[in-house]
Design goal:
Blueprint lengths: L1 E6 L6 H4 L1 H6 L6 E6 L6 E2 L5 E2 L13 E4 L13 H8 L6 E5 L2 H7 L7 E2 L6 H7 L4 E2 L5 E3 L3 E4 L4 H14 L1 H11 L26 H9 L7 H7 L4 H12 L3 H19 L4 H7 L5 H12 L3 H8 L10
Parallel strand pairs: 1-2, 1-5, 5-6, 6-10, 7-8
Antiparallel strand pairs: 3-4, 9-10
Helix pairs in contact: 6-7, 9-10, 11-12, 11-13, 12-13
Length: 318
């Protein structure tokens, strides 16, 4: 089994500490999940609860994936204690390292994020940039996959990144099953911008939810901004501003995300040809579908179908 080792640090948040166990352990023995500390002893959580573990830092030597949950913001520093630095040094080359929220500060302090893209909780972006100017911080996203290191934003984004890893390791069917059992969406659209504190809108104004639902029901149509704004009874400028405030992304980018998602569903669940899928998902042509799918996940429609769907005899792949 793929071994996931969760490194619990002093001041750990109990909710995020349990995310890896909840998500990976729900895959029916595809992963082994254990928790360790830097010295094998108990640590105090931010909730004044002592967390006892059965493993010390030696567990990190056999980890395929290392998860660093967040810890109390009062303990954030640009430096690492010798114990934490020594524990991280035990992680074998080739292992994946994943941080949640303030866990990114540990990776940055260890020099593992120098010159690399990373994210953390949006409220800590300014502090992170001050302490680690050499990291290419993007506080707008829920998580970033940079190969052997993945960083995620606050709290529930830890669920997002763990589900993403299950999907990456074992395909969408397994990830979707885990998401259903955990009662969470298998994929969340948009980024952290939708959660940043915003002025409360006048309750008498109309949001964009109804228009988004309408767009999802008509993805095969061309939907310029003017048409979306007209459906919401707004000017294009007002609609675009309100849309971003509610979703964390622009209408155009959101539409592409939804069309990619629809195309992926059709590739996984049907035997439709690529031209038909391109039309039904709103990309128009197979060439456009290939371009957008490759930009989103780095593979062609044919490769995606072969990876994520058991092909039945006679299924058309061209």
């Amino acid at each position: 089994m793929h071994r996931v080792v969760v490194l619990a640090l002093e001041g750990v948040y109990p909710f995020e500490l349990g995310i890896a166990h909840r998500v990976f352990a729900t895959t029916d023995q595809l992963y082994e999940v254990i928790t360790c500390t830097v010295d094998g002893g108990p640590v105090r959580s931010d909730s004044d609860v002592t967390v006892g573990v059965s493993h010390g830092p030696e567990a990190l030597e056999s980890a395929d994936t290392v998860i660093i949950p967040p810890f109390s913001m009062s303990l954030i520093s640009a430096d690492l204690s010798p114990a934490v630095r020594g524990a991280l040094a035990r992680v074998r080359p080739g292992a994946r390292i994943v941080s949640i929220c303030t866990g990114a500060f540990v990776l940055a302090a260890a020099g593992l994020l120098d010159g690399r893209p990373a994210t953390t909780h949006w409220a800590l972006a300014d502090t992170f940039r001050t302490l680690f100017p050499g990291v290419r911080l993007d506080p707008d996203v829920l998580f970033i996959d940079d190969g052997d290191i993945l960083t995620s934003a606050g709290a529930a984004s830890g669920i997002d990144v763990c589900l993403y890893l299950v999907r990456k390791d074992h395909g969408s069917a397994v990830a979707n099953s885990v998401a259903r059992r955990c009662v969470v969406p298998p994929w969340r659209d948009g980024g952290q911008a939708q959660f940043i504190e915003q002025p409360v809108h006048d309750a008498s104004t109309t949001g964009t939810a109804a228009t988004r639902q309408w767009a999802l029901e008509h993805l095969d149509r061309q939907m310029p901004l003017a048409d979306l704004a007209a459906h919401a009874s707004m000017s294009p400028r007002t609609f675009a501003r309100r849309f971003y405030a509610e979703t964390g992304t622009s209408p155009g980018r959101w539409l592409i995300q939804q069309r990619v998602h629809r195309a992926r569903q059709l590739l996984e669940e049907t035997d439709l040809g690529i031209d038909r899928i391109a039309a039904d998902s709103g990309f128009g042509t197979a060439a456009s579908l290939r371009q957008h799918l490759h930009a989103a996940i780095g593979v062609s429609p044919v490769s995606y179908r072969r990876t994520f769907r058991t092909r039945e005899a006679g299924a058309e792949l061209v």
